Amino acid sequence: MKPILRAGGACLLITAVPVSSASAQDRTDDNAITQAEDAFGFSVGREAIGIYGPGQARGFSPTAAGNVRIEGLYFDPAFNLQNLLVDSVSIKVGLSAQGYPFVAPSGIVDQRLRRPDSTPGASLLINGDGWGGKGVEVDGSIPITGTLGLRAGANAGRTVYPNGTDGFSHSESLLLRWKPSDKLEVMPFWAMFNDYDDEAGTFYVPAGDYLGIPDRAGHDESPKWADIRFRTTNMGLLGNLSLAKDTVLRLGVFRSSVFNKHLYNHLLVDQQPDGSGERILIADPQTRNRSLSGELRLTHSILDGPRLHLFNLSLRKRDARREFGGSDVVSYGLGALGERVTAPKPDFEFGELTRQRLRQTTYGAAYNGRWKDVGEISFGLSRARYRKVTRIPDEATADARSRPWLYNGTAAVILSPSVSVYAGFAKGLEESGVAPQNAANRNEPLPTILTKQKDAGVRFALTKGVKAVVGVFDLRRPYFGYDEANLFGQVGSIRSRGAEFSISGSVVKNVNLVFGGVLLRPRVEKNADAVGEIGDKPFGLPTHILNANVNWAVPFLKGLQLDAGIFRRGRQPQTVSNRVYLPARTTMTAGGRYGLKLARKDASLRVQVRNLFDNNDALGAGPGLYAPRDHRQVTGALTVDF
């Protein structure tokens, strides 16, 4: 979804507002390859492609950094927005982020909601896979009056994971859209997700400088009673009001929460080269995390011949409450790889919780100038007021405050109808995620940090139907690692320089290509007071990522489309010391979809093979932490639009 401009009439839509809404009854058309605008990250329905995603962009996580948007407006999720509500997700970096008033250094995750349609209808989706997973989903649109519409959805299913664990889940959603005139639109929404009997699985921590040795794929070693149970809720209100033909007021208010009723982590630590090690299980007490967040944005436009001037005033707020700690750890002694823990469930003794409250208010002003066939320039200035209070049992309350100035600027010049160049810079206040599972302070939210980024690039047309983007970037932010007490905290700073590219479009008739890549050259500067061995390369960042996807609409068999994809991740450090590296990994997918009629209704049959050649190399889950092996999976889904 591009930021768009619509001038004239009673309304001016100027800040990443969708031109069209997704119907509730057109799910058979979902195809990430044909719908993606670039290769930087896009998902629609249950399909995702691209070199970046919500958890990783240019080497960092835009979600963990707090750069999530709903319809372009600020959203601080305690848990991800439920899929039933979301039509598509786009990762915005570089040139694709222009038009957003306040650009974030680590990229933007913008979520587009699936809105009610003007006619009644529904979509039914039935899915299954070769691992034993299965599910059903239905969502529909009900026009209540000419100005009021409802979209409702529900799904339920059993999910089976690569390590053989499984879980049952269900979710429900409601979205109401009231549009009494061209000047006003109001959309409240609500969604809930429940997860049951989701086994803990096993993570592996080697004793020395070598890769962890996971169990065979599809086999679970954790206790059968160690079932995870949690519930998430997201609700909110979106509003658009045209105060005048050249002035728009937008509002987004959101509440996101997660209730962890049962939470376990099973680790095989001090793992020896033969795969054996000490089995420990970490149980957490019940915790509740929630966040209230939102943005109020006023946009005024001035149309001056071929030039358009956009002025934005923004108020963003969040009030987040988090609970963590109080865990109980049980050791089951030495165990061999592949042995399942059969010991009965103990009586856990939990400690007191650490409670944290984070409040942030950000005031901002931004300008965007667009000159037809010439270029675009934008800049923004914000002042954040941040406070985080942490109450740790039997310790003094920690109170952290800051009031930094934040800024960003971008410029693009149109050199010809087919070539544009751009450059930008940004300074932002971002989150850092939480400490990993094998840290002494596991699950503890890491400090909020200041980040800086510079980028530049060029966009050009290779052919009439294919466009390319090539860019470079330089991103700086604090770096986190372990100290001698195994506490995970700031140990230095990181400078991540890289180059990225995207090629997308219709290469020939009936063939669509989405091909992208990023080359990374990150470096770590160790703090003078940091202890322990810290390498000069950050853990978890590969040397490169490549992703290519192609879709072929078979001309001699109407309705049949074939697709294939390849994903390659380069070699990457897996420990803070850089003594252990994950080897490069390449996986492939192949599949197809067939459009047909069932009882005179549009339908689509989708089949795909993921990890086609069954690459089951070790996978990283954090510094010195290894995840279960992946393996080949065959998936199938039938979608019917009513």
TrEMBL record:
Q: Where can this protein be found?
A: Cell outer membrane
Is Transport there in the keyword field?
yes
Which cellular component appears as one GO term in the record? cell outer membrane
Signal peptide span: 1-24
- UniProt topology in membrane: Multi-pass membrane protein
Give the matching InterPro entries.
Beta-barrel_TonB_sf (IPR036942), TonB-dep_rcpt-like (IPR039426)
Q: A GO molecular function for this record? A: siderophore uptake transmembrane transporter activity
Keywords annotated in UniProt: Cell outer membrane, Ion transport, Iron, Iron transport, Membrane, Receptor, Signal, Transmembrane, Transmembrane beta strand, Transport
> What PANTHER family does this protein map onto?
FERRICHROME IRON RECEPTOR-RELATED (PTHR32552), FERRICHROME OUTER MEMBRANE TRANSPORTER_PHAGE RECEPTOR (PTHR32552:SF68)
> Which protein are we looking at?
TonB-dependent receptor
From what organism does this protein derive?
A: Sphingomonas piscis
